[in-house]
Amino acid sequence: MLNTTHFKYTHSVLVVPMVAILIMWLVYLIELRLHVSFNKYGIYPRTFLGLRGVFFSPWIHGSIEHLYNNTIPVAVLTSALAYFYRNITYKVLLFGVLLSGLITWGIGRPSYHIGASGVIYVLASFIFFKGVFTKHYRLVALSLLIVFLYGSLLWYIFPVKDNISWEGHLAGAITGLVLAIFVKASIPTPKKYDWEKEDYNDEDDEFLKHFDENGNFIENINEEPLEENSIKITYHYKEKNTGLE
Hints:
Helix content: 40-55%
Number of helices: 7
Strand content: under 5%
Radius of gyration: 31 Å
Low-confidence stretches: none
Structural class: mainly alpha
Largest sheet: 2 strands, parallel
Shape: elongated
Number of strands: 2
């Protein structure tokens, strides 16, 4: 779907990542303050109680390193989503959390899956594929930037480490691709010049009126031709010689 909506800054570009990061850090600080662990509220695959983790797991992190590693990608990717896809930002986030969480619940190992990394994979995958599908030059450039910044994430959708939820990463990548295909985004139409339009008529073009049939430039197209017996005065200006060289 194409319209004349242009990319522009809105408060969501800052508010969305700030709120997400604030909740993530607040949850971790509460755990430290109360000396408790919220890991049991993560996704536990194929159990009814484990479904609550679909909503809670993105906010729960097992360590300060885990939390820090997820903070910057969440800030960058949610800001990019809110700026370039502002009309579908909340839809992508909501369905991204739900669908990636459910897939993780269905394919994951019997363990608690926690952290915002699944959502990070949703956003990286969505932004990359959506830019490729739309073929808009700015969005394609954004896709290439995502590859440059987060291309290494691809390795972690495979079971390369025992202590990471590669199932959550894979679920996020699949979800991002699905959302890129089915969620319609409004993007600006490419600018067309007058001569590119179907109803263009070169005789009405003000620019071309400054040239005659031989391609010579006409300095003043509104100048009336001189009458046959009219007097024409021509001024010649001579530069004064000061004697200096």
